[in-house]
Amino acid sequence: MSKKPEHLKARAKILRHAVRLKKLYPNPGFWASGLHKGGLRDLAEDVGMDWYYDMPYWSGSQSTHGSAIAVERHIGIDSAGAPEYKVGLSSRRLRGELAVCCDLLVRTLALLNDVCKLELNQICADLVPEYKAVFGDDSLEQVTDGD
Questions:
Q1: Helices (H) and strands (E) in the chain, counts
Q2: What average pLDDT does the chain have?
């Protein structure tokens, strides 16, 4: 948008590079197509995060795409068969979404603690029983077992 000579020069340089790099990204609709993967699901699978893609990411992203699943969160049918418009936040399915978010936060903190040597071992160890007390899940065992 700028007509300043330095910006026009930078734009021309970027476009020259883009032409050379275009062949490395065969699918213009997928930012990581240069990695020769079909989509985000393939990338998640490569790093062992397929469950996170299949569950929280996929189900959570349905509301951003035009589908029956997306509409269902906002429009329902009342007992008389008339459309019912759901406006605002809902607590429906909130427990599962909170469990996934908390799981990710606890695991991320434990990973950062290990990698960055933050000395938060006791905090990480305390978070696992707190999580279990609220959600009744033992999926965080490996976080404090050194796995």
A1: 8, 2
A2: 81
